[in-house]
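Justification of computing resources. Each target in the renewal requires a structure prediction run like the one illustrated here; the chain below, 316 residues long, is used simply to show the kind of job we budget for.
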Amino acid sequence: MDHSGHGMNMDLPPFTLGRGLEFSADPFFLIGSIAALVLYGYAVLRLRRRGDGWPVNRIAFFLVGVLSIALVMCTKLNDYGMVMFSVHMVQHMVISMLSPILLLLGAPVTLALRALPVAGRERIGPRELLLMLLHSRYMKIVTHPVFTIPLFIASLYALYFTPLFDFLMGSRPGHLAMMVHFLAVGLVFFWPIMGVDPGPHRPGYVMRMLELFAGMPFHAFFGIALMMASGPMVETYKTPPASLGIDPLSDQNWAGGIAWAFSEIPSVLVLIALVFQWYRSEQRTAKRADRAADRDGDRELNAYNAYLASLQARGQ
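Resulting structure tokens:
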């Protein structure tokens, strides 16, 4: 028996973590994950061949980010996610809130700009096209908080509480488009906040924290709404296969709990990253000030001390 036209067998055995982690690749995400790792690895090798380094921690972040996508899209978690709301919510939370943060900490845009060759005078190559995209009006719009925060919120409420979700779950292309959308929304939401790669918007650290906290509570409210519902709210998951042995309302409660709990994880990760970046920025500023003082013989400090002395002399 097929589910929602996907050609997937509905008679899945009861869910266990072991069964969920069995290999069952979605071709699009499998090819995309491999391609991302190959391109990233090639760019790192290109830098090292010319004598430039690339931080190992960034490599690790990007690798784990790609693997987190493969974990939820290239295993039977993806199959169970078609018939279990709770498993689908794990997919959603990982691919929209955890994977983007890890990928962005890998600084793929910075790596590409450093690895791609300069095309030359009055020529346009891949590096120049990337720079044009980064500085385009389109990118300024899609990475602006006025756009990203409502989009981040609407991806929950306008999707799950309208017939749109059931429509997308009715076909493989629709399900694929939804998962790609989750990933893209997470990337554009966290990109200006993380501040690792260059982008059109680079607000101060306090403003980045405010942007983060402007979106996160809505995930918690969404989860609470699912947990407090007296009946199944999403048509797709109202009649789960009998072979699973689950109650749809109980499964929905689990989905709500996952959405509620998961809203805290990215907040903590991003806050740690922001505090570390802020500290590093202050350290660099202090070093620049020290070097400037060494060059001019503490001219500013001496001038300030002379000013204080003049004030004291006037007071006498």
